UniProtKB/TrEMBL annotation:
This is Arp2/3 complex 34 kDa subunit. The lineage of its organism: Eukaryota, Viridiplantae, Streptophyta, Embryophyta, Tracheophyta. GO terms for molecular function: actin filament binding; structural constituent of cytoskeleton. Coiled coil: none annotated. Keywords: Actin-binding, Cell projection, Cytoplasm, Cytoskeleton.
Length: 445
């Protein structure tokens, strides 16, 4: 399982790059959004490169959550305590944001280690602001007291228009999360995940972890909470925090983990859903392979001479056809090659040696019949278009001195065009000869 980091990685990297390159005085204007609809904006001008404006927009609070001046209770005090003189709060903030901080980079500590620690704290402004009221309650828990002048059930915002609840007592604080998900599949995964999450608390080695409970209905601690805030389709998760869980450095970790618990669950729900999809795809692939192996092998059909299909000729085949049609002294070998190219039955050539004229007329008739269908695939316009394309590339080659070798292509295209021009004349003669043969000479079918 993974726990999210409190600092914004993009914000921290931007601050580090800015501090390391102050002398360049580069203007910055960055907008970005992180999970739970927390938006950031960084603005740096070239007129004052040591000043950086950081604006933060928080999730829209629900009606039951208490905000003061657009910020959670105690946020201003938490910012001043965390950042000191380095950060100044602008009032009012920039339009569209809940908070705008003015960072004076010239006042950063000179020591590299302390400077880096402060930049990490600035990059964790989300934790400082949203976790401020929770931090106040847990600090009083560490001293075994209750925050004065605060309702027994306190609603804190953690997602847009959603809140979780704190029920404070001197010796413990109960934190209750109504778990809501928009997608029904996510709801099913989350319900199963949370039930297993509660069971994992009982494992050995987790005796000191906060007790965790899951319930499909609101716990009785929330009897005083407004009814509209208790709608949850994945149940309610409750953590009981004791003073030992917030002692010393444990306080910051507890505040962050509780503030981002819903995001933590959502992350693992999506991971589980992706894992299930992968397993399902692999299973389907294995079943398809099993079905393919179960198919009986089909017998190859033997083609008869009458069922042979027309085979498109290539350039070499057409040259052979033309040469054979006008070469009376062609050998029987070339006749068989011609018949193979034309998908003819070579048994007709058996009489070639006895009756050359009959064999020639038979081959010529079939040759012309196929030639009528196959000749136009050469597409003279297409070849001329290729030549024009080559000329364009050749012009670019000469203009920009590109290292291309198109000479071989040019020669090949010129040869093909020359042969096509010759074939056009031969084709007209062949068609005329075919007409004479078909009209005057009987050729057996």
């Amino acid at each position: 399982m993974i726990l999210l980091q409190s600092q914004s990685r993009f914000l921290l990297q931007t601050l580090l790059n800015r501090v390391q390159n102050l002398e360049k005085a580069v203007e910055l204007d960055y907008h970005w959004v992180e999970f739970n609809d927390v938006r950031y904006h960084i603005l740096v001008s070239t007129k004052n490169p040591n000043v950086l404006l950081l604006s933060v927009s928080l999730p829209t609070p629900p009606p039951e959550a208490v905000f003061m001046g657009g910020l959670p209770v105690g946020a201003i005090e938490a910012i001043k305590a965390a950042y000191g003189v380095v950060v100044h709060i602008l009032d009012p903030p920039r339009d569209g944001f809940n908070l705008t901080l003015k960072l004076n980079l010239a006042k950063l500590p000179p020591d590299e280690e302390h400077r880096y620690a402060l930049l990490v704290k600035i990059a964790s402004v989300r934790e400082v602001v949203l976790g401020a009221p929770l931090r106040v309650v847990l600090k009083h828990l560490a001293s075994r007291t209750v925050v004065p002048d605060v309702d027994r059930v306190l609603a804190l915002v953690h997602r847009p228009k959603e809140s979780f609840f704190l029920v404070s007592q001197p010796d413990k604080v109960t934190v209750v999360f109504p778990m809501r998900f928009k997608d029904s599949i996510d709801t099913a995964f989350a319900t199963s995940f949370l039930q297993e999450f509660v069971e994992a608390r009982r494992a050995a080695g987790l005796n000191n972890a906060p007790p965790c409970l899951w319930s499909p209905t609101p716990p009785r601690e929330l009897n005083e909470a407004p009814a509209e805030a208790l709608s949850a389709n994945a149940g309610f998760v409750s953590f009981v925090i004791f003073p030992r869980h917030v002692e010393g450095k444990k306080l910051d970790r507890t505040v962050w983990n509780l503030s981002t618990f819903h995001a933590y669950v959502s992350y693992h729900v999506k991971c589980s859903e992706g894992f299930m999809h992968t397993r399902m795809r692999r299973r389907v692939e294995s079943l398809i392979q099993a079905l393919d192996r179960a198919k009986p092998g089909g017998e190859e059909k033997k083609k008869s001479p009458n069922s042979r299909s027309f085979k498109r000729l290539d350039l070499y085949g057409i040259v052979m056809v033309l040469e054979f049609c006008f070469n009376i002294h062609a050998s029987k070998t070339s006749a068989c090659q011609l018949c193979n190219l034309l998908s003819l039955d070579c048994s007709h050539i058996g009489a070639f040696s006895k009756d050359t004229n009959l064999a020639f007329k038979l081959v010529l008739k079939n040759c012309i019949s196929n030639f009528k269908e196959g000749f136009m695939f050469l597409n003279l316009d297409g070849l001329e278009g290729r030549t024009a394309t080559f000329d364009m590339h050749n012009a670019y080659d000469k203009a920009f001195a590109w290292e291309t070798d198109l000479s071989a292509n040019k020669v090949a295209i010129d040869l093909v065009l020359a042969r096509i021009k010759k074939w056009k004349d031969v084709f007209s003669v062949a068609m005329a000869a075919a007409g004479v043969l078909e009209d005057s000479l009987p050729i057996p079918e």
